[in-house]
Amino acid sequence: MTPILLHIYGPFAIHSFGVMIALGLIITLYFLHKDVKLAQFIDDQQLTNIFQISFFAGIAGGRIWFLMTNWCIVEHWTDVFKVWSGGLSISGAIIAIVMTLSLYFYYYKLPALKILDRIALYTPLLQAISRLGCFFAGCCFGQQTMVPWAVMYTHHDSLAPLCVYIHPTQIYSSLFLTCSFIILMCFDSFYRYKKPGQILALYIILSSLDRFFVDFLRGDREFFTHPTLFGNLSIQQALALSLIVSALVMLTFISIYKKSDESI
Question: How does DSSP assign the chain, residue by residue?
Answer without folding.
Answer: --SEEEEEETTEEEEHHHHHHHHHHHHHHHHHHH-TTGGGT--HHHHHHHHHHHHHHHHHHHHHHHHHH-GGG--SGGGGG-GGGS---HHHHHHHHHHHHHHHHHHTT--HHHHHHHHHHHHHHHHHHHHHHHHHHT-S-B-B---TT-EEB--TT-SSPBSSEE--HHHHHHHHHHHHHHHHHHHHHH-SS--TTHHHHHHHHHHHHHHHHHGGGBSS--B-SS--TTTT-BHHHHHHHHHHHHHHHHHHHHHHHSPP-TT-
